Amino acid sequence: MFLSVFDMFKIGIGPSSSHTMGPMVAAARFLDTLRASPFHPKGLRASLHGSLAFTGVGHATDRATILGLAGFEPATYDAAKADAALATIRDTKTITAPGLPPLRFDPGADLIFDYGPALPGHANGMILKATDAQGDVILQETYYSIGGGFVLTAGELAAKAEKKAKPSPVPYPFESADAMMAMAKASGKSIAQMKRANELAFLGPVDLDAGIDRIWQVMTDCIDRGIQGTGILPGGLKVRRRAKGIHDALMAERGLNMTSPHTTNDWMSLYAMAVNEENAAGGQVVTAPTNGAAGVVPAVIRYYLDHVPGASPSKIGEFMLTAAAIGGLVKHNASISGAECGCQAEVGSAAAMAAAGFAAVMGGTPEQVENAAEIALEHHLGMTCDPVRGLVQVPCIERNGLGAIKAISAASLALRGDGIHLVSLDVCIETMRQTGNDMMDKYKETSLGGLAVNVPNC
How many other C-beta atoms can be found within 10 angstroms of the C-beta atom of residue 11? Predict the structure, then answer.
């Protein structure tokens, strides 16, 4: 099992990695299948199931699916071109994708929200179909958006469940935290150094460093845009952007030299909320490891750079590689999907990743880094995913702020110790998996329970 730093941190668009980016990726994959097939399709159809149906409108899943079928992809998304393409599709009831003839597609009739039972493979399922001139289905594929923008076909998901893991062609093939710690001890390397060595098995050092620099640039640009953004977020809840107001107030207090110690928490929350306000508005973000939790990791990095004496931008790579190693363990052994395990799998995983990264750049040992990740994840266990009106706004935006605060608190606590602790990260990840399996479906990104039904949504 090898998950690259660029698997855990992907440049995309809001508001959701599983409900927006995933369906767009799935649709793009279906186009590739059509291009390679011997069939001559005349039309397209799509159906959304499980969580993709229940919260699809709030997450722009319908829009993302249509745009994916029109050839758009998250990493190269252009908002102006997307708006123009959608208008044309609605007017002409036709999709024209690169390398394919014009295909019939009526958004009102050919995109179905199926509110029945979820498909068997995962809570986030969708079926894409190609039809002939008579409207009969000539090609069909089922896709699952499994969190963080990762997409698998039904066949790939089944093969993954049946296939025994093959040894990864990397020098440090750890698939558990215990194995990671044993390799760190035997090699004398840090978690980031081992992760870097694994990445270099597939990518040259110049490209690796450039890729990490690009990820951070998109993250910090997103914070800056969020801090300047004003107005009401889309979706109907009439949630107003707050990051700019908080930032202006913090800067004014700093000028008066009257800052209280607890104001540090406000800076952490500000950075995270700025990202998630941008995400809620459909802006460019980095999955970290998901869009719903996209604010935690960049907020902690920005806090480190702007508020920690002696901080160095040269350590951003160490932070991200460490964080990616932890995120990979969580994804491999449990889940990063809110629709599968609740928000403990999203903000909880992000907090664990950020805590580990922060502990690493603060000089922590591998034992302290693992402890930091465990503390952060442990204290998100049981957190539900209950977005009001299916929007990634309430409670998601503030939750990222509190996730960043917990991450830094967890790292600080771990750094005060020697790395010896009772609950291991592996145990905590397994507990999160079990908790997610036991959690009622209405608390897993369906907007059928929790805050989503107790808060007026209009």
Answer: 21
> How far out from the chain centre does Cα 308 lie?
27
* Domain range for 369: 177-454
| pLDDT at residue number 163 | 63
In order of 97, 103, 105, 328, 413, the CA distances from 94 in angstroms are: 10, 5, 5, 40, 57
What is the reported pLDDT for 384? 98
> Can you give the pLDDT at residue 261?
82
Dist. CA 301–CA 313, nearest whole Å: 9
For residues 117 and 246, give the distance between their C-alpha atoms in angstroms, rounded to a whole number.
Answer: 43
Q: Residue 263 in 3-state DSSP?
A: helix
What CATH code is carried by the domain that includes residue 132? Answer: 3.30.1330.90
| 34, 350 contact by CB (below 8 A) | no
346/291 Cα distance (integer angstroms):
9
**Beta bridge partner(s), residue 240:** 232
**Whats the size of the chain, residue-wise?**
458
Give the pLDDT of residue 408. Answer: 98
The pairing of beta strand 43-50 with beta strand 111-114:
parallel
248 and 383 share one domain? yes
Q: 4 in a domain, yes or no?
A: no
pLDDT < 50 stretches in the chain: none
Segment 335-354, tens digit of pLDDT: 999 999 999 999 999 999 99
Does this model's pTM top 0.85?
Answer: yes
Does residue 10 belong to any structural domain of this protein? no
pLDDT at residue 456, rounded to an integer: 82
In a domain, 285, yes or no: yes
